[in-house]
């Protein structure tokens, strides 16, 4: 069966996956333009300063993933409006609290003798939270109603717009602010678009849903997203701490050119799979088909990217970055086990078992942090090999039991 036949057979899921994969690819391709621009206009130390601020902000931004969106997607129709009203209250209080928290972190960093530039950048990034509460319910409702192709386009538009702003600023005004300010400037684009896509206003005649179910489900989802952010960002903070801003700048470049690009498909897959599993009458069959399709697409693409890295890295970034090509090649390959774990994680979440996902993600994160601490003194290539080995072992190991449990009826029949 050809890949085209698979897409036809999988229907809406394949179309939504293709839309989100295209969205992520557009976002990462435009991000690659940013990397090209900064490689030719900024030194590694300036890139490292911006990378530190972005990494710290992304870890805190993971706190926005508190499970309320998933509650809206999975809510019975009779309880939908009540669920949305409670979710909106949670979003408002939560995002304002995160703005205050991130500003406080920036203040504490400055007061303890940290970089004033990094502190200012973290405050700028925090202002993005102000725009989020007014659009999160609308996004969840759109995803619930199957408008994933439209939400993918909006997401891509926001990120691509921000990245093109980065390129312009990097050329006209090189410096760490060029990598940070566009995130805030693009937030209104997202808000206007999602409110037009799926209008919604609270219905005062409907009482809000109880808060307890949100808390029971949300704590584990929140924990998963926080440790997931730590898994993706803590290595950068450790590299900066152990090796300095210049080495962090090099690692940031390699990560974005390698795993950052290859991992875009994994992000798209996870985004689309959860609502697909929630709406499926046969989750095991849906999971099996989705995973087969995803691995069939990502594995050859990632391998090809890994083999091509020594050729495209010096062309895109300049000859001075040639030594990074081996690191890029290695990091690309970590996207393959990432897709397998994404499938298992979304099945656990759809089965209302986010605490299992949280425990596995915590173990992965601790293992990757330990790898960074142990391997960083031996150089970036050793660090990349360690990252690939640890990511492969932990993600495939964690995915084994959930996937066997989910697919056991089909495996027995086969």
Architecture overview:
By secondary structure, the protein is mostly helical. The chain is globular. The chain has 18 helices and no strands.
Tell me the number of strands: 0
| Count of discrete alpha- or pi-helical segments spanning 4 or more residues | 18
Compute the average pLDDT. 79
Distance between the termini: 18 Å
Strand residues, percent: under 5%
Helix content: over 70%
Main sheet properties? none
Order of helices and strands: HHHHHHHHHHHHHHHHHH
Radius of gyration: 21 Å
Low-confidence stretches: none
Global morphology = globular
Provide the structure class.
mainly alpha
Please outline what is shown here.
By secondary structure, this protein is an all-alpha fold. The chain is built from 18 helices and no strands. Helices cover 83% and strands 0% of the residues.
Which properties best describe this structure?
414 residues, mainly alpha
Topology:
Layout: H1 3-10, H2 12-41, H3 44-61, H4 68-74, H5 80-111, H6 116-126, H7 133-144, H8 148-172, H9 177-197, H10 212-243, H11 245-257, H12 259-262, H13 264-278, H14 283-317, H15 325-332, H16 335-350, H17 354-375, H18 380-413
Helix pairs in contact: 1-2, 1-14, 2-8, 2-13, 2-14, 3-6, 3-10, 3-11, 4-5, 4-7, 5-6, 5-7, 6-9, 7-9, 8-9, 10-11, 10-17, 11-15, 13-14, 13-16, 14-15, 14-16, 14-18, 15-18, 16-18, 17-18
